[in-house]
Structure formats: structure tokens, C-alpha cells
Amino acid sequence: QEVVSEESEEENNGVNLMEFSDEILLHILSYVPCTDLVLNVRRTCRKLATLCLDKSLTHTVLLQKDYKVNKDKVKQLMRDIGKEIYQLNMAGCYWLPSSTIDHVTRCKNLVKLNLSGCHVTSLRLSKMLSTLQHLRSLAIDVNPGFDASQLSSECKATLSRVSELKQTLYTPSYGVVPCCTSLEKLLLYFEILDRSREGFMLSGQLMVGESNVPHYQNLRIFYARLAPGYVNQEVVRLYLAVLSDRTPENLHAFLISAPGSFAETGATKNLLDSMARNVRLDALQLPKAWINGSGLLQHLKFNNPFYFSFSRCTLSGGHLIQRVINGGKDLKSLTSLNLSGCVHCLAPESLFRKAEDDIDSSILESLVVSCCNLKHLNLSAAHHHSSESIGNHLCQLLSRLKHLLSLALPVCSITDVGASVEKPPTTPNLVPQTFGRKVRIGIQTYPRNLGDQTNQKIESSVFWALMGSLRFLETLEIIGSSFSSAMPRNEPAIRNSLPPCVRAQSVGDSEVAAISQLTYLQSLTLAQLPNILTGSGLVNIGLQCQHLRTLSLANLGMMGKVVYMSALMDMLKHCKCLRDLRLEQPYFCAGAQFFQALSHCSSLQRLCIVSRSGTLQSDAVMSFMASCLEVIMCHMFMGESLTVCKNLQQSIVRSFQAERPALNVVIFPLLHEDLTEVIRDVPMRHLDEITLFKSRVAEEPPNLWW
């Protein structure tokens, strides 16, 4: 009785949530999904009924990752607060039927609308836009069958007032661009495949009758991102043709992201020459063929640049300093820099240099001093080897960038110079890094915390010091310079991978343990770390990095066995905030023990496993899906037979689709010839964010779209 009375007294003396001020309650409610606020929370009491309809909570409605929302909830939401919504983001809501879009017409005051990833026909788009007279920002997909001639005059009147347009193209088309006569920001994503499902080659020519006069006179930002394929290149050239005739005077950001070879033509050369004469840029990204061997950068003028991307260019460090950084002047405004795959960017010249030669630390130092406010830096996909000069290691110089929020580095760049020439430690239980005869070994043990390791050696490393100096880093990528994913975009799965860089051979558990210093880390990618022996550092990350939401691990340690499995399972037990997990490792066994550990990740939403010769246990997968109620994406590309994969996929869909409307399941043999056909049906949100491996640091300018 005494215990009960003490507990009741504590409850009486406790703080009642409703006693907080309205300002504090509104701040708390801002973290609750809008559908829950309007459809559930506001029905609990009168005070919350009033607060949940406050303008600060209904002005902007974000449904883009509300995987529990369905058509009925959207209908009720629009009916209750439609007139109060000024910004609506439904990007990536692929599971909602197209008829859901009809309810957006209730939002008469909409100013910004994002429907990327939603299937919208020409007629539906016309009907909806005809009622949104205040719209100024629009994001849509243009799918096969889109017909601009079906757009009504009222719809075109709305489009004529739109100043920001994001358009994802799945078919050769201008979409609604010709109707947008007041464009200031244009974002184009080209996702057109070269072949139809029937195997016919597609053409980059536009539909007969389409207008070919986009209106760019007021354009300030032009951004185009191309998926692999020649059709995408043909279509983007049609969009650029008008720009080459007359370059907008107010253009201050010009960005084209194109994989592979995208040759320069006479029209694009005229465009670049016109830009050099008439505009001053704040953001620049060009295909590598447009920059390599040209003096373009010497003639372009910059105002207060905030973003540069020279990804995969042969730009030397000398040119980078002289032509871009301008001797250290006027680059304090630069916040994002992408030098991924720019193999000579830290060397004075590239003519007689090998990619594996040591970097020139003075170039990196000039970069750090000139761009001291950098928040996002990508140096991946290159060999950046530091010399033995004391105090000039790449990690030591980067530690001066105190504002960094995201960083991507090659594995060979983080090793201590002395350690890189030492022979990696070996133990009698290790298997050679080959695909030869399998060796039966016992269960590996690993130190559970840093106290069990050689602390003095670890904490004196340059990488440990770098991690200690970047306490507020949110995104970190450590990727082997020769790593390539087994599952590329439009080609069959890669069966062989290149060996890691010699300098990277000593990078392993101690370097991974150093990452645990990043208390605010939210996203971590580790790929091709050859000296992972037990994975002990992963446990430290799980314990210390409690904000971790995204984890991607690929080809760690030896390739013939998953040596870090025990440590990974221990790590997962501590990752309560983890939402996205991607694992790529040959011979990965997705069995009962693994899924039991993964079940501790109560916030997990998306899982992707890519494993050549990998195995899975169907019963374990089903039990995992039943226990982790938030999981809405399960992609597994393994070594199992097509029959096993199909049966498991059908079982998951049949058991969980009804209660999880956004559920997307793809289980398929990795080396099957039809893999590319299966991938093309994956929603772009999942494909781009997790299923396909790529470096995402400084991939595009920050805050490019909301």
C-alpha cells in the first residue's frame, strides 16, 4: 500500500502535458505527421482540437514518407483542412491510386505542390491545375501517354504563373515546360530507357505536335540529371537548344549531371561561350567531356558560388586552384564541393601523373583555407595518397573544416602513411581473400569495446583525430576507390570486382571504431574495407551513434565469408533509430539469427540485401516482417533459385500488403538475366535512395528542392 501511495503521489506531482504553453505544445505537435494530427490527435480534447488546426501545422503538409497514409486518409485530410494548406508534398507516394489526386482540388490556396512519383494522367493534371490559381511551384512525372494537347486553357493559365518546375521524364517529351512562361527554376530528371519492355529501341525524338519553344527568358536555375542511356542525352539536347540561342541574363546556376560520356556539340559549345560572356554563376556542374581539355573554366565568371561539382573530370589541382578557387579569393561562400572521381584534383598537373601517386598537400591546404565554410565535401572514387610529410596528411588538413556536415572519402586516403606499408595483421583463423575452396573455421571473437583494443595505437591515428574534430558530422561515406556495386543500373549484375588499393589494405576495425566518436551521425556508408577482421568497430558505432538512421555496408573484410556477422548482429540490437539498411556482401546468410537481431531495429522501414551466392531462410524473413511493423520495403537479390524467390515474395505481399499500403517487395536472383526488367518496376524513391549503390554526398546542391 505504501508503494502504491508513493506512485500515485508522484503522478499527482508530475507535469501534465496540457499545462505546457501553446508555443511548447505546437513545437511538440510539429513532429507528429499531419494525418495523425488532423484525423486522430485533435479528437482527444478541446485544447488539442484547436492547436492541431493551427496555421503553423496546417500551412505545410508533408506526406512524402508517411507510408501509412492511404486514399481514404488523404480524402479526409483534404476535406478537413484543404483550404488551409499552402504547401503539399506527396513525392514518392507511389502506392496511392491516381484517383487520389482528384482530392487535391480542395486545396484552393496551394502555392507549392510536389507530385513526383505519383502517377498523374494528362487529363487529371489538367482538371487539378485548373482549380489551383495561386500555384507557383510544381513537381510532376511525365509518363508514356502524356499528351500536352489535353491540357485545358485554365490549366495552361495556371502553368503560365508557375515559376518553379521539377519534371521527371519517363518518355521523350517537353511535358508542361512550354506552358510555363514565367519559369525561374527548372529541374529536369531524365529516366527514359533505351528499350521498351518488348525490346524495341526507343527514339529521342519528341511526339508530333509538341511545342519546341520552352520559355527560358526569366530562368535563374537550370538543373538536369540524366540516367544512363543515349535517349536521355538526345532529349536533354532538345531542352538545351533554346538556351544556346539566347542565354538568360539572370542565370546563376547551371547544372548537368550526366554519367558516362556525353559529348559536347556545336550548340552546347555556343551555349557555354554565351554563358562565359553574359552571366556570373553561383553553382556549376557540367559533363566531364565539356570540361576536359578545354579552357572553359578560365573564362567563366562567378559571383558568390555555393556549389561546384567536377565529378569524374580530369581537372588537375593546379587548374582547380588557379581557375576555380582563384588563388583563394571569394570562395568563403562555397558550401558544397563534389570532386568525386576527379583523380588528379589534388595534384599540380595530370599529364605525367599516375592516379596512385601521392597528392600535393599544398593544393589541399589551399582548398581548405579558401573554402573554410564547406559543409559538404566529396573526394571519393579516387586514390588520394598522403605523403610522409609530418602534419600534411589529408585527414589532418580536413580536420580544419569545422562546418562539415557530410563527407565522402576513399578508403586509401584515411590510412596512416606508416601503417600502409606494414603487413596487415593475420590470425590463424582467417581465410584468404579469394573465391577458392571454402575453409571451415570457428566462430570469431571480437573485442566488445575500445578498452579491449590497443587504444594507444588507435587514438594516435590521423583518422581518429579527424573523426574527433568533426563532432557534428551527420553523413559519412568511406568507399574503396576501386569499388563497384554488383548491381548497376541498366546492365546485368557484375560478377567480378577489382581488388582494393594497396594503401587500403590496413584499413579495418580500428578505423571503423573511430567513427563512433560522431555522436550526431545519421547516415553511414562503408564499402571495400579489406582489413575488417571481426567488425568490432560496428558495435561501438551502434552504442555511441544513437541518431543513426541510414546504414550501408558493402564488401567488408574477406570476400569468401562474412567475418563481421556476429558484430553486425550485436550492433543492430542498439540501432533503435535505424530506418534504412543496405547490405552488399557475397555469401551473406540471411538466416534466423540475423533477422532476430534485425528485429531490434523497431524503426526500420527499408531493407536491401545484395549478395552473390547469398542464401536466405524464408521462415525467418516472414517472422521478421511480422515483428517489424514499420518495414515497407524489402529488396533481396541473392543466390537463391527463382522459384524460392517468387514464392517468398508472394507470401510477403499476400500476408502484409493489406495493412501496409506502401509495401514494396522484390526478391530475385542476383545473376538472373531478367534482373534489369525487374529493377525498372521499382519505385524511383527506393531505387534512387537505397537499392542502387552510389555516393550521395554533394550529389546535388543543398536545398535544391523542398
UniProtKB/TrEMBL annotation:
<dbReference type="InterPro" id="IPR045627">
    <property type="entry name" value="FBXL18_LRR"/>
</dbReference>
<dbReference type="GO" id="GO:0019005">
    <property type="term" value="C:SCF ubiquitin ligase complex"/>
</dbReference>
<dbReference type="InterPro" id="IPR032675">
    <property type="entry name" value="LRR_dom_sf"/>
</dbReference>
<dbReference type="Pfam" id="PF12937">
    <property type="entry name" value="F-box-like"/>
</dbReference>
<protein>
    <submittedName>
        <fullName>FXL18 protein</fullName>
    </submittedName>
</protein>
<dbReference type="GO" id="GO:0031146">
    <property type="term" value="P:SCF-dependent proteasomal ubiquitin-dependent protein catabolic process"/>
</dbReference>
<dbReference type="InterPro" id="IPR036047">
    <property type="entry name" value="F-box-like_dom_sf"/>
</dbReference>
<feature type="domain" description="F-box">
    <location>
        <begin position="14"/>
        <end position="61"/>
    </location>
</feature>
<dbReference type="Pfam" id="PF19729">
    <property type="entry name" value="LRR_FBXL18"/>
</dbReference>
<dbReference type="InterPro" id="IPR001810">
    <property type="entry name" value="F-box_dom"/>
</dbReference>
<dbReference type="InterPro" id="IPR047948">
    <property type="entry name" value="FBXL18_F-box"/>
</dbReference>
